[in-house]
Amino acid sequence: MAVPKRKVSPSRRNMRRSHHALGPNSFVEDKETGELKRPHHVDLKTGMYKGRQVLTPKED
């Protein structure tokens, strides 16, 4: 079984994890309503996804 020969220092461990941070969420403008929404997500106000009605819209 492979075993590390030396302890990984905190500096080297943290440098390896430098790419693990989460980036900011991306939003796109909805063509129909002009509101911002997440790409590839259902618009909960209208219930539309890719031009199709997939959910019944919520009533306020």
Taken from the alpha-carbon principal axes, the silhouette is: elongated
What count of helical segments does DSSP give? 1
Identify the strand order in the major beta sheet: 1-2
Tell me the distance between the termini.
61 Å
Uncertain residue segments? none
Helix content: 10-25%
Strand content: 5-15%
Q: List SSEs in N-to-C order.
A: HEEEE
Write the layout of secondary structure elements.
Layout: H1 10-16, E1 28-29, E2 36-37, E3 48-49, E4 52-53
Antiparallel strand pairs: 1-2, 3-4
What's the short version?
With 60 residues, this protein is of the alpha+beta class. The protein is built from 1 helix and 4 strands.
Write a structural description.
By secondary structure, the protein is α+β, with helices and mostly antiparallel strands. 12% of the residues lie in helices and 13% in strands. The strands form two sheets. A two-stranded antiparallel ribbon has the order 1-2. It has a two-stranded antiparallel sheet with strand order 3-4.
List keywords for this structure.
60 residues, alpha+beta, two-stranded antiparallel sheet, 12% helix, elongated
